[in-house]
Every structure is written in C-alpha cells, then in structure tokens.
Amino acid sequence: MQVSKIIISDKLIEKLNGIDYSIQSWNDLGINNQTDLLEHVKRLVNSYNKKINIVSIDAGNTNDSRNMHTALVTSKFNKIVAYVFFISPGSIARNMFLSQQVFSGLQNIFNNYCIHSSSNDVFNKPVYIINLNDDNSQDSKLVTIRGAKTIGLHYIDLFHRESTKIYTEIEEYDADLKSLASGRNNWFSIDNVNRVIQFQTGSNDLQNATSERYEFLARQIPAVALACNSRYGIDISLVEQNANSETVNSFINYAKKLYNL
User: Fold this and answer.
1) pLDDT classification of 212: cutoffs 50, 70, 90
2) 3-class secondary structure for 47-83?
3) What's the pLDDT score for residue 209?
4) Side-chain half-sphere of 182: how many Cα atoms within 13 Å?
5) I need a surface site. Which of 66, 115, 127, 214 has the fewest CB within 10 A?
6) How far is CA 138 from CA 121, 142, 240, in A?
7) Is the model's pLDDT at 125 over the cut of 60?
8) What is the CATH topology of the domain spanning 4-157?
9) Once rounded to an integer, what is the mean pLDDT over residues 182-201?
10) CB 211 within 8 A of CB 96
11) How far is 6 from 103, CA to CA, in rounded Å?
12) pTM score, whole prediction
C-alpha cells in the first residue's frame, strides 16, 4: 500500500499556531490545538481517498515560496503524488476565496507542466483543497467551489458543510454568475445562435490587482472547460487585447491548447 505524507510550509505552521482554538466551532470537532487540527486533517484526507494513506503532516519545502497555502503530498520515495491547498481560518473577502489561496499556487503548476503536456487535464496531478475556514459559505463562495470541482479539484471541508455538485452545462454556470452580480456576467457571454462563448476580462484591473487576476483564473478556467465539453466555439480576442500579465496569459494558453488554436 502507498504510504504518503503532507508537507506544509513553515509559514502555514506559524499561522495555524496563531489560531484561537478555544472557540466552539473547533471544540465541536474535538480540536483544541494545532496537533489535533493536523491529525483531523490527516483523517479527513484518508477518509476521502483511502489509497493515498497519509501517515503524517510535516513542515518542509513546498517548492512555492510565494504561497504559504501550498502543500505537497509525497510518497516514501519523496515523489510528488498530489498537491494540497489550505483555506486558512479567518475573514476572507468573497472574491479572494479559493482564488488567492489556491489559484495563485496552481498557476505555477499550470504553467510549468500542464500547458506542455499531451493531456487536456487542467493539472498534472490530483489537487486537494482543504477548507479550514469556519465562516458560513456565501453564494459567491459556493459558485467558486463548484467551479473548482468542475475542473477536477478535490474539495474537503473541515466542518463537514454540504458540498456542491460540479457544473455540467455552461448555461448553468452563466446563470449562477449572473445571480451574483445583479443579472450581469462580466466574464463571458453566450452566443446561442452561433454557439460561441466570448470571453471577457471582467470588471477588474488585471494588470495591477493581484487578487483580481486570480479571481479571473478561478472564474474563466471552469468556463473554458465547460465550453469545450459542451462543444461551443470560443472567442478570446477581448482577453488577448489585455494580455498584460502572466495570469491572463495562462488562461489564453490553456484555451488555445484545448481548441488547438
């Protein structure tokens, strides 16, 4: 049987040390300190995927100095077998949920491995998202979670809140995005007559605002994957006009790969 361990950054260890474990939501889970928390995470991951067989969670080098939320699952031969991203406790702006903690790290993996692979998979190894945040999920967060699951990310909630199903149709994704913005979808529009999805940059500053760039990825990668699965054509010309960041170029490269452009 495979034996694995999760490697997390020293910065994340430090942040987990600063949690107030006296609050009721932690105590209800039998978590009273960092050791309890990491043990609980280990059980959750093993319950989600028994084959992964996590035996420990240790501090170490995660190969991502820019994102403390990145973690690695390694085998006994120190081979990376999966990626893990933690959603830390504390208040998180709705547009930063998942996007800042997860897609900032995934962008590096995406650019280094997946753009050049023969597969159309978004990422080259399994990706687990472990939500340690005890805030009740808002609708915008649920849409982001559902989008992440749609592209194959594995979502595990520490507090056992109801998970969401994946999107199977881009029309449903479009309707949910519109419900968050008073009937507007600033990310893409659907031309049902010509069966073309026209992608946009949203209403954000993608050149200067880091969180907005990662929100762009969190919204658009599921959209282009759904467009491809639903056999829609795509028009990314408006996005290409604003190709002023590594993040936007990551999306453009993935869209072109999917459609052999």
Assistant:
1) confident
2) HHCCCCCEEEEEECCCCCCCCCCEEEEEECCCCEEEE
3) 59
4) 0
5) 66
6) 28, 6, 32
7) yes
8) Rossmann fold (3.40.50)
9) 94
10) yes
11) 19
12) 0.90
Bridge-based pairing of strands 154-157 and 80-87 is unpaired
| Gap between the Cα atoms of 74 and 5, Å rounded | 6
Please report where in the chains the tokens 């159309």 appear, as a residue: 120
Three-point CA angle 110, 114, 120, nearest 5°: 120
Tokens encoding 236: 């990314």
Token pair for residue 54?
């996590």
Structure tokens at 34: 């960092």
CA-closest candidate to residue 6, choices 50, 32, 41? 41
Quickly list DSSP for the chain.
Answer: ---EEEEE-HHHHHHHHTS-TTSHHHHTTT--SHHHHHHHHHHHHHHH-TTT-EEEEEE---S-TT-TTEEEEEETT--EEEEEEEE-SS---TTTTTIIIIIHHHHHHIIIIITTSSS--SSSS-EEEEE---SPPPHHHHHHHHHHHHTT-EEEETT-PPP-PPP--HHHHHHHHHHHTTT--SSEEEETTTTEEEE--TTS-TTT-HHHHHHHHHHHHHHHHHHHHTT-EEE-HHHHTT--SHHHHHHHHHHHHHHT-
Amino acid at 231: R
Distance from first CA to last CA of the chain, Å, rounded?
42
CA-CA-CA-CA torsion sign (256, 117, 105, 49): positive
**Single-letter code of the amino acid located at 230:** S
User: Any idea where the domains of the chain sit in the sequence?
Assistant: 4-157, 170-259
